[in-house]
Amino acid sequence: MSSNKNALIRYKTLDKCLKNKYKKYRLEDLMDECSEALFEFEGKESFVSKRTVQLDLQNMRSEKFGYEAPIEVYERKYYRYSDQDYSIHQISVNENDLKAMNNAVQILKQFKDFSMFKEMNGVIQKLEDSIHSTSQKSIIHLDKNENLKGLEHIDILYESILNKKVLKICYKSFRARESNYYVVHPQLLKEYNNRWFLVCWHKQKLMNLALDRMEEIIVEDKIEYHDIDLDADQYFSEIIGATVSPNQRGQNVIFVVTSEHAPYVKTKPFHHSQEIVSEDENGTTFKICVQLNFELERMILGMGEFLTVLAPRKLKQRISKSISKAYKNYHSNPDETAE
Predict the structure, then answer these.
(1) What residues form DSSP beta bridges with 53?
(2) What burial letters (b/e) apply to 226-261, b meaning 16+ CB within 10 Å?
(3) HSE on the CB side for 315, CA within 13 Å?
(4) pTM of the model
(5) Tens digit of pLDDT for each residue in 100-120?
């Protein structure tokens, strides 16, 4: 159990003792009560020292956690609240606290209709009622689309990862003519550019399945789940987007951005590995270390004429080929004039 959780259990226990009007508590009694409370939660002996309880009482008296508890020592050995109606669970909040809570509620409200947050609706409503924020319009807007195809699958996928369940998924990729069934061990849900993916273990390797291509999901209770303990940060560390190639290593991608648009790339890096190689009046040269995938190419093409790839050669050729095809789309009939 974490030290923070232990501390919260002790504070709650001390609060219960200090507001008890019918029993006198010495410091040793408070130590025993805290030790017993921790034993109930941890299931093992946990001795709380005199020094620990003294520090807890000091913290509760101070402004450190916003308690400012009126703890007094009477008859030179017993502890209690001087205000018999006080409790750390009945703390009043000031104007700044209310504003901070209101801002948090406005952000949470934006997820209210999203399937993963359905159970939060009641909690959000209670928070709104408590801080009287229902009349305030949202001043923070997050990019989201509740109507995306495949979002209806998130709940079962999330629960399957949480409860370590094997799934049989009927899936039809964009390139396939017919649907296929895959027996997978779901590991992680990944969102990129308003599209959701399931990272799963299938036939001794990791694969991505787009939620919008899933047609049916069946829980396979009789198959033992294989947990590969996937570290998401490490797994996606060398890519932009969601497509990871297990046989490819990150490469140094070098590109130059015109001086007019370089500030946008500086303030919103393409990747966490991004660094500036050089800079002059014509533009800024950047370097990132990533795998070469579709999402990277799409990001580069999205910058249009403002970005030029310098290396690696393979990526430079791909981008050049895509631009050539796009050019032909607009110049397929030279004799045709625009209206």
Answers:
(1) none
(2) eeeeeeeeebbbbbbbbebeeeeeebebbbbbeeeb
(3) 24
(4) 0.60
(5) 666 666 666 555 545 555 555
